[in-house]
Give the backbone structure.
Amino acid sequence: MSEMRYEAPKTLAAAVALLSGAKGQASVLAGGTDLLIQMRAGRVEPELLVDIKGIPEMTSIVAENGGFRFGAAVTCMELIEHEAFAKAWPGVTDGVKLIGSIQVKGRATVGGNLCNASPAADSVPALITAGAAVSIVGPNGRREARVEDIATEPGKISLAKGEIVVSFLLPRRPPHSGDAYLRFTPRTEMDIAVVGAGVNLTLDEKGVCSQARVSLGAVAERALLVSEAAAALIGTKVDAAALKRLAAAASAACRPIDDKRGTKEYRIKVAGVMARRAAEIALARSVSSFAPTHSLRKTARTQDSI
Amino acid sequence: MPDTIKLEEKKLKVIGTRPVRPDGVPKVTGLARYGADYSLPGMLWGKILRSPHAHARIRSIDTSQAQALPGVKAVMTSADLPEQKFEYVGPERVAVNFWHMTRNIMAREKVLYEGHAVAAVAAISSTVADEALRLIKVDYEVLPHVIDVDEAMRPDAPLLFADMITRGVEPAPGKPSNISKRIELKIGDLEAGFAAADEIVEMDFKTAPVHQGYIEPQGCLARFDTDGQGEIWASSQGHFVVRAFTAQLLEMNIGNLLVHPAEIGGGFGGKTVIYIEPVAAVLSRKTGHPVKIVMSREDVFMATGPTSGAAMTVKIGVKKDGKIVAADGLFKFQAGAFPGSPVMNACMCSFAPYDIPNVRSVGYDVVCNRPKSAAYRAPGSPISAFAVESVIDVAAARIGMDPLQFRLKNSAKVGTPTVWGPKHAHDSYAATIQALLKHPGYTAPLGKNQGRGVASGFWFNNGGESSATAHVNEDGTVVVATGSPDIGGSRASMALMAAETLGIDYDKVRPIVADTASIGYTHVTGGSRVTFASGIAVIEACKKVIGELRARAAMTWDVDVDDVIWEEGHARPAGKNMGRFEPLSLKAIAAKKAVTGGPISASASVNAGGVAPGFASELCDVEVDPETGGVKILRFVAAQDVGRAIHPSYVEGQIQGGVAQGIGWALNEEYIYDQAGRLLNAGFLDYRIPVASDLPMIEAVLVEVPNPNHPFGVKGAGEVNIVPSMAAVANAVSHAIGRRMTELPMSPPKVLVALDSGRGD
């Protein structure tokens, strides 16, 4: 039986030193809601656990250049209960809210959700559509990456030995922006996404979509940024025809597998449906930022029930 | 037991009220002790090595390295259990075969499913025990396997048992197969019946095996003395059965084994059988230490009994006026690795709610490479009801009749023959249909993509052997002990019946579940028998106590005992000319017990007959998402004949629980196997039982038609509620999408395929 070492460093430098110096497998422990389960099931047997919850930079939410920076070890519940963040990024909040039960969310972190590298991770598609930047610190200093470039395949991330995801920066949002994340699960909660779809869009003063990002979860080896689907919205008023093109582009981008949670055909079809419905919610949220008398507001669609 | 137990028509004071359950506080505060919560000094941890293969011959098992690991105190294999005689014992519906049972506890010649126990260790810690399991070398010859029932019945299917000749076929087949048994039950003239029909509906169905889904994994602690006396603490639905099975498998005298009932965190039938107790007992006997074994959730899914999956064909013939004239059912059930599916129940219950002159039910009990099936809430009946009630729905539509009126017209009544012989003796089925007809939900308007379904069901209920003791304490409180593990609030109902009988307050009664040495034999908590049968034992024990209390009063007053009556918790003179005596309360008599004859207590052991069956009719509204195939349950109303609800809240809870399980069975629950026969979803994340937000408030309608054969009118109420549920959901979904759903679960991908195939036709 191998021994396991537990360390709780107070600084990033100490954490990086521990991880880079580890001889066997070293694991970063944040909320532990994935790691402890994998350890109990015997799927991983780390020699070293580095608990990062004591590092201030990793556990705080701060305003930065009109945007938000939150630490990778901020718990989901802290993020959900941060009113200004939730108001600015309702779609990211949608995704974070879907991660497990309230008890699980009291421990689980967005950094952990990303680095666990499940293609079905609920916070990831919305973070991708938000254009979130990931701050990474390692033996060679600090670097920045895009969320969509972290996970490479199930359980695998692009970080080098000794590197840690430290924080996420969500930029300032242009006016009339809205984002949304929807997933399909057979159960209403306590489930894993069969398909997830995030949409973030911005309207100009005339209500024409000027920017859009669309991301899909659980339909490939990692969450996908689908520019073809975004292109279907840009330049349109996000009308029925544009939404139909969006759905088709989303379905076309899927390269899913058959597994215990769904068939290929099912995922491909439902990805389009989820993307369209998420876009409708994102649209309603962006339209709601117009003045109460604005004509666009009156035609805003309300959230469809799934 | 007394030969005339009759309904007592009198005003009830305590029965029908809803007091807090006596076992509630320790459960809510986390202090209740379940199977895994018992520990003893010097205790070892037992762990079980399980097969990674669905089907393989065991060439050899090398335990030497495990044995040599420091901290390991014993290793066991099937060689540590004596061979058992091959014979089916007990009534056919629930027969057991210890030759099979010992092989299910620990594989011998072959492993028959992934997760089949192969060896076990006892070590000083759970970690050392895990390490030891990794050191056991099993040499397997992997064999072809078969999971599906139709495939298992094919002549070229891999055989689980090379010498299995189908029982119930004359002449006996010349070749072995996976078909353990064929059953045929019939009445009337089937051919003539169908010839007389105006419409005939025939359809095929398939259901998936589903697990009982109890929250508490099996856990037990065993200890042995060097004189061969053993003791077990276990969570089960019947500690007398744990004792009987374990003693048989270990070749012990029953008297040398004492089994303590732990609190039980759900069973639903799945804890009427044993898995780990004989293993813990053998390891304890070998080491001289107490040994604890607790199953993991994965163990529970891989190695404990689900109920059967089935392939079925049901055909019924109806006249234009709505009269069903013939019914024919073929029910092929997966037994799992060893014979014993509930297919006979399915054959019997399938058409039982209906008065049909010509009926045939044919059943097959088929083995396959998955865990042996175990009882699950009205075993067998919900499966055949899914098929029958779907066909009934189609037939009603075919002749243009309202589906409830169609059922009402054909409902079984007193005197209606059953396919298994006796005539129905109760006719409360119609009352459950009428309850739905009167319910506002039945005529409430439906929206787009919504559908409504109804279905009904039958379950035998059970009586049988139960014992109870009532002890009067010196302060006037009363302890009531039974041998029935409390799964669904039975301590509350025992206390209510005792309080009603004795004429004292509910909170003066302390109900407990006693161990196997402290109370007379009591059969399992199952078959919806406890409130009925153990209730009769409690009432009888309390009546004997009343006899004694009257005798003590008679002694105090110096009168004949026949001149003393018991009324509202007091001994009173039988008449005015008896003399003027102040009534004596139970408390007053108890205070003087030492000078009037000593302790006051009485026991009763009964073999309760007079069982009344359960009938239920249910109504379900759904909305189907046409783009995802997701099904939302909008409304569920369950009307059930419960005889008389002793504690209405717990009866409603039984109904809601049964329906919730039925909805899970209908919509999402299934075992997913890979090509090698390995289970891919051995956990609650991907084995999807419904969570609270998946369900509407399930409305329980208590139809109370008292059982004339019980002092308080009790009928079993725990099981029949699940019988109609899947058919009610399936009928609702079928109406919502305009396509008939014949396969469970109706998971979103399947519903979407049905929706898409429906387009354009």
About this structure: Chain B has 20 helices and 28 strands. The domain at 24-32+463-608 of chain B is CATH 3.30.365.10 (Aldehyde Oxidoreductase; domain 4).
